[in-house]
Fold:
Amino acid sequence: MRSFADSNGDGLGDVGGLRARLPHLAELGVDALWVTPWYPSPMADGGYDITDHRDVDPRFGTLADVDALLEEAHGLGVRVVVDLVANHTSEQHPWFVAALAAGPGSAERGRYFFRDGRAGGDQPPNDWISAFGGPAWTRVTSPGGAPEQWYLHTFAPEQPDVDWSDPQVQQGYDDVVRFWLDRGVDGIRVDAAPAMAKAPGLPDAGHAPGARFDSHLWQDSPHWDVDEVHAILRRWRAISDGYPGDRAFVTEAVVHSAERLSRYVRPDEMHTTFNFDFLHAPWRAERLRQVIDATLAALRPVGAPPTWVLSSHDDPRHVTRYSREQPAERGGPVSGPADLAVGLRRARAATLLLLALPGGAYLYQGEELGLPEVEDLPVDALQDPTWERSGHTVRGRDGCRVPLPWSGEAPPFGFTATDVRPWLPQPPEWAALTVERQSADPESTLSLYRAALRLRRELPGLAGERFRWDDDGDGSVLAFTRGAGFGCLVNLGERPLPLAGRGVALLSSSPVTDELPPDTAVWLERDPAT
Ligand code: GLC
Structure:
């Protein structure tokens, strides 16, 4: 929301900017648009700290603007998905303000997790940790200033977790879901889904001192991916099934395995879920192949479509991730200097891989321009709570959130009015990456995305679920067939791969001759009989 386009000259993206730039999305060829939170918020966590889930922050616009956005997007054939943040509210939400005022034992505190501390009250109630660093508990003081109870926050202290066993919480969020479905949104993205249920009694998780929030490693955690979360998802699915049209949910769930993830998309739960295993896989053929296989195998029994994603507003942009020496495994050390030319080459190849796989693909704004992570933002510009919470050791996610470059030769590149500074500074070298510049260049990354998304709609071989690995080679190649007549080949090795006899190239991520160069992907039209 904040980084797409600004229409009112405050340096912050808004609904008006989104409306003005809808033609870009339609021309790009996307089916739908997911908007990160636009709700009233003190912005302690980029809008994921909400004071009113049924309104729009004045910095972003009004509900009337949202209605106009829905109408215009639908007119262009683009659906709209909103973000539902139901694990926590803002500390300034009326519920939390009332909870603080009402004191220990009150019904108002029952909507959150308030507990007495251990060791006479001075220690947090358990060892749970926050996703942004440090303990997941903060102590409050009584109106007289005396230290009092603690409250739970999986994310920043400004984002207290709500207690989903409380009927008022359940009812409150039912109303939120209905509010947006009534307004005509086509889908809902469920934020931090695995955090929404906690094990009864809030037992210790056994975290080592200084442990990181590596939720993809956790099994049987008392505060992540607890089975009761599925009751919440079923509740929402039942609500949305009562609405006309195809409304779809997508969950954000970084969990231990593809099998655990598949539980979020059982027939009476969510429709799709982001595939973070794919996003976090290094640029290595064997790892990507494992993730693809595990994803397809885990989702088949529940009948949900797979999805694929390379970047998000929470992760370093994949051009930069792929620009360094690749770790053997997810989370392994990424080392060496960045070679952004290599990173972009791999990113373009990864795009053709992503868009050739069966199921849905999620794109993160700016990847269609091949934007790199901005790793050298001045520290006084950093806004991600991770920076403060980590004691200035982890910069956080601002580097992937730098406002988009639309046009012109210098910042703000058409993102906002010429004399206004965007909320995060843009690198001057992005002059070469603007939408305007890339639209005029048939070899640009933007042109590649447009061509790939168009073919993805048009080619019959890319419809449906058919997927088969071709038996290929030395472990540095990904080669597969979709429907009859369509093949995809990705060379992740160091040597060129002969293309003779493999079919006719339809689209390639970098120029190809009779060989497929390293870090290049190609879509092929084959003899349908093969
Ligand atoms: C999700 C969002 C992230 C946010 C967090 C807390 O992970 O994607 O941006 O900080 O939830 O709401």
Remarks:
- The chain has a mean pLDDT of 96.
- DSSP finds 14 helices and 17 strands in the chain.
- Residues 45, 48, 85, 155, 191-192, 252, 313-314 surround alpha-D-glucopyranose (CB under 6 Å).
